[in-house]
Amino acid sequence: MTIETLGVDIAKNVFQLHGVNGNGGVVIKRRVTRDQLLEVLAQIDQCTIVIEACTGAFCWARKFEALGHRVRIISPQYVKLFVRRQKNDGNDAEAICTAARQPHISFVPKKTVEQRDIQALHRARQRMVNHRTAVICSATIWMRRRIASPELLRLTNEGRKIIRKIET
């Protein structure tokens, strides 16, 4: 039988595969290691591989597409609804596969390497802005508590203006 949808639960070392045919019947349930994953998927006929969105999902999606498979990335909030019984890798892979076959589920758009790099830069900049704001707020609070003179408060406001000018 051919596999139509293959749910892959991504982990650090061991990956769980759960494949179903067009009728929803289970065709494959298999546990593979990181080293075996691409070899096993290369032997499977082209199908739709569904993975849960996480940090490494986009990297794995590019590798699976290089093997000729169609890859869909699904948000974890949708997968959680379909987990039956206890949470383990096998049940997660089954839930990923089941969720992907639902007509109302929306998928996460794929990102290129460049988009991921830009996203990392934006996050780094946001962390720097948050850190700078925290330092300014602490310094202001310290000055108000310790000295509380109108002259120093005026200097603090002028210091903020200077920092804004430097940033732009």
Question: Would you kindly provide a written description of the structure presented here, covering whatever features stand out?
Answer:
By secondary structure, the chain is an alpha/beta fold. It has 2 domains: 5-110, Nucleotidyltransferase, domain 5, CATH 3.30.420; 114-167, no CATH class. It is 53% helix and 19% strand. It has helices at 34-43, 57-66, 76-80, 89-100, 113-146, 150-167, and strands at 5-9, 14-20, 26-33, 48-52, 70-74, 107-108. Helix 5 (113-146) runs antiparallel to helix 6 (150-167). The relative contact order is 0.12.
Itemize the secondary structure elements and their pairings.
Layout: E1 5-9, E2 14-20, E3 26-33, H1 34-43, E4 48-52, H2 57-66, E5 70-74, H3 76-80, H4 89-100, E6 107-108, H5 113-146, H6 150-167
Parallel strand pairs: 1-4, 4-5
Antiparallel strand pairs: 1-2, 2-3, 5-6
Q: Which fold does the CATH topology of the largest domain refer to? A: Nucleotidyltransferase, domain 5
Q: Residue-averaged pLDDT, rounded?
A: 84
Question: What's the CATH class of the largest domain, please?
Answer: Alpha Beta
Strand element count = 6
CATH superfamily of the largest domain: ATPase, nucleotide binding domain
Corresponding CATH architecture of the largest domain: 2-Layer Sandwich
- End-to-end separation in angstroms reads 62 Å
Our count of domains comes out at: 2
The low-confidence parts are none
Number of helices: 6
- Proportion of helical residues: 40-55%
Largest sheet: 6 strands, mixed
Percent range for β-strand residues? 15-25%
Shape: elongated
Using the CA coordinates, give the radius of gyration. Answer: 25 Å
Structural class: alpha/beta
Q: Which series of helices and strands comes N to C?
A: EEEHEHEHHEHH
